[in-house]
Design brief:
190 residues; alpha+beta; Muramoyl-pentapeptide Carboxypeptidase, domain 2; 2 domains; 4-stranded antiparallel sheet; 6 strands; M15 family metallopeptidase; Zn_M74/Hedgehog-like; peptidase activity; DD-CPase-like; VanY-like_core_dom
């Protein structure tokens, strides 16, 4: 299901839920009505938080379903989420997961920084020119095939303790160390 269809479905679900509420009698106090509204709102927020948005779906070739139409490295900035205030952008589920991962690492006293995130096609060409293609012993994917171009991968600044923390904890947040020879490269897949 694409992102727009998922949003439309969720709106319909919320409208149906709201329609099932019975009007309060005139004897209900404003406090009771406010409490009922707060409870209903909290319930809907909890359902939304517990239910992964359709934006979590990947196509067979690993592209985020709602971004696939743009093409690898062609995604407009507005279609990606900024990771906190870092200036880096990722696919929304990956961005949120990384923010949670980063907060957990910080709570454990581990510093993790971002050195690279989403890469446009032109940026992928530049990296391939400077670092060589992975298949030829370099460090870059063929332009147009990088998970960076889908907003799923990050390059991280990791010291030894941060790398150990990532290897022990990153999977809980949907990230995997998926590129041999690149301990700094982590990809979101959940």
């Amino acid at each position: 299901m694409d992102g727009i269809a998922a949003i439309s479905t969720r709106i319909t679900q919320i409208q149906t839920a709201l329609a099932s509420f019975t009007p309060r009698t005139a004897t209900a106090t404003a406090g009771t009505a406010a409490a009922a509204f707060a409870s209903a709102l909290a319930s809907e927020v909890a359902i939304g938080a517990a239910t992964p948005a359709a934006s979590g779906a990947l196509t067979a070739d690993g592209a985020p379903a709602e971004l696939a139409a743009y093409g690898n490295g062609q995604i407009p900035a507005a279609a990606l989420d900024e990771i906190g205030s870092t200036g880096h952008r990722l696919w929304a589920p990956a961005s949120g997961a990384f923010e949670r991962l980063s907060a957990a690492a910080a709570a454990d006293g581990v510093a993790i920084t971002i050195t690279d995130s989403y890469r446009s096609y032109a940026s992928q060409v530049d990296v391939a020119d400077r670092k060589g293609l992975y298949s030829n012993g370099g460090l870059a994917a063929v332009p147009g095939t990088s998970d960076h171009g889908w907003g799923r991968s990050l390059d991280l600044g990791l010291d030894a303790s941060a790398l150990a923390w990532m290897r022990e904890n990153a999977a809980r947040y949907g990230f995997a160390e998926d590129t041999p020879r690149e301990t700094w490269h982590w990809t979101y897949s959940s």
